[in-house]
From TrEMBL:
Segments forming domain Thioesterase: 145-217
Annotated signal peptide: none
Gene this chain is encoded by: them4
Major enzyme class: hydrolase
Organism per entry: Danio rerio (Zebrafish)
SUPFAM superfamilies, alphabetized: Thioesterase/thiol ester dehydrase-isomerase (SSF54637)
Enzyme Commission numbers on file: 3.1.2.2
CDD domains: PaaI_thioesterase (cd03443)
Membrane topology: Peripheral membrane protein
GO molecular function ontology, one term from the record: hydrolase activity
GO CC terms, sorted: mitochondrial inner membrane; mitochondrial intermembrane space; ruffle membrane
Family according to the record: Belongs to the THEM4/THEM5 thioesterase family.
Annotated keywords: Apoptosis, Cell membrane, Cell projection, Cytoplasm, Fatty acid metabolism, Hydrolase, Lipid metabolism, Membrane, Mitochondrion, Mitochondrion inner membrane, Transit peptide
Protein name: Acyl-coenzyme A thioesterase THEM4
Length: 236
């Protein structure tokens, strides 16, 4: 078990974490609080039939069965979603000595199912793209009956940030440019399509489009710049 954890904290999406951070993380493994990993992107009763239909569609094309973990041959990988990203890297353990223990990933911080951000993302390594099925809940209202622009920006940042992380390792958003084309109805299901535009040194440029599930309607378009960082810079 400890060997597994040590392997996981040594890498971030396949990128090496600095040895100083690793030493501090390993030292604090002595005082860890194990927390069971809950994948918040698994289907739940708040998901509409449409959300479930598209989840099944992409899940059937995944390279690994999400329940049995058997290898398959599909092009997609379903990305798990935890309420603390550091738990992802450490296999379910967060390091309370290093980082504020009560911190939670913004999009996974409300427990009521269906109230805020219901989403699941799939990554296609070959094509360097990510898609996300997003069902915005009633607590995300902006214009009456429609989703707040900040909530849409949050989801775009989250999914493009996830793609940047998988492609370039630890990165932060440096620039997020959004055009809101049409209001998104609360409770609808939309698809967030993200694709790598280019990588220039530390800079990863991602394009993003939010559409209806049949892709006939474009709700939002965005371009996002991520800059790679040393993970240690976040910890001072
Ligand atoms: C641990 C385990 C995780 C596990 C898995 C997690 C999964 C869970 C998924 C959740 C996913 C959430 C994703 C949220 C992601 C955020 O929301 S991050 C939070 C918001 N962003 C921030 O707080 C960033 C604040 N800004 C900064 O820290 C610094 O300004 C930056 C961006 C690191 C750049 O500073 P720097 O390192 O000193 O670099 P600098 O030399 O200034 O710039 C580097 C290059 O970028 C360019 N650049 C920098 N800023 C800009 C800009 N605004 N516009 C244009 N160009 C720029 C520079 O011109 C330069 O270009 P070149 O000269 O190389 O051509």
């Amino acid at each position: 078990m400890l060997a597994h954890i040590a392997r996981r904290i040594g890498h971030f999406h396949g990128h090496q974490i600095s040895s100083a951070i690793l030493r501090r993380m390993r030292a604090s493994l002595k005082t860890i609080n194990p927390i069971s990993l809950q994948d918040f992107s698994q289907p739940n009763p708040s998901w509409s039939p449409e959300m479930r239909k598209f989840y099944d569609h992409y899940n059937a094309q995944c390279d690994t069965d999400t329940e049995t973990y058997e290898n398959k041959t599909g092009p997609w990988r379903k990305l798990p979603s935890y309420n603390r990203s550091i738990k992802h890297a450490t296999g379910g353990i967060y390091i309370s000595k290093l980082i504020q223990a009560k911190a939670r990933l913004f999009t996974r911080s409300v427990n009521e199912q269906g109230a805020t951000f219901e989403y699941v993302a799939f990554f296609n390594k070959e094509e360097k793209i990510c898609i996300c099925l997003f069902q915005p809940g009633h607590l995300l209202e902006g214009a009456p009956g429609h989703v707040h622009g900040g909530a849409i920006a949050t989801m775009i940042d989250t999914v493009t940030g996830t793609l940047a992380g998988y492609l370039s390792g630890p990165s932060v958003t440096a620039n997020l440019n959004i055009n809101y084309r049409s209001p998104v109805p609360l409770g609808s299901v939309v698809i967030i399509h993200c694709a790598l535009d280019r990588i220039e040194g530390r800079k990863t440029f991602i394009t993003c489009k939010v559409t209806s599930t049949d892709e006939s309607k474009v709700y939002t378009e965005a371009t996002v710049l991520f800059v790679s960082i040393k993970l240690g810079s976040l910890f001072g």
